[in-house]
Give the backbone structure.
Amino acid sequence: MPINADYRGPADLPEVIPVFPLPGALLLPRGQMPLNIFEMRYLAMVDDALRDGHRLIGMIQPDLTHSASEDKPELFHVGCAGRITQFAESGDGRYILELTGVSRFKVVEELTVLTPYRQCKVDFFAYADDLTARKGEDEVDRKRLLEVLTDFLKVNNLKVDWNGIENAPNEALVNALAMMSPYGPPEKQAMLEAADLKTRAEILIAVTEMDLAKKRTSGDPGLQ
């Protein structure tokens, strides 16, 4: 899905962005993430992102295993910036958004700010390839990915739109499956930080195979 912004390189992106810590949330370049915003601090974040014109929000997971504070947990060092591409007011004080992933980023430092939401100085240059659509998708083992997906759906008694899957380019397929996957924050973070699309697909396949093996050998319901 194209967005109405021409990001030719990391230099076109701001050095400081608001961040939205959300465990288990995985946004990837050109992926879409719906958000239901109701907390006052994040309503203010959206207002400011729209007012500033960049419309960017950094989705990032809190690193709960290394956090001393529940109110302000440590953050993982890599997140993904998304641009607000759909916006609606609910009428009851909430915002209904859709973010479209732009590029991953590394956190350089979290800033001390007066805003109720957190802000970070970030580096997009490490992920410059994210701005090139479908880069590296020819290296993805699509056949193996679909085999594992078929097994996963069968074990969990799920159905999907196979016509849509068969027509999806590799990048869209891998990233959508990764974002929708039922796995925990460590697995989601590993897929986010994958060096390239091929590696992300391999991580997704490996994690799914481990989950399937666990279910088959122990009867454990596995990751849901």
In short: The chain has six helices and six strands. The longest helix spans residues 197-218. The chain has a mean pLDDT of 94. Helices lie at 40-52, 142-155, 162-167, 170-180, 185-192, 197-218.
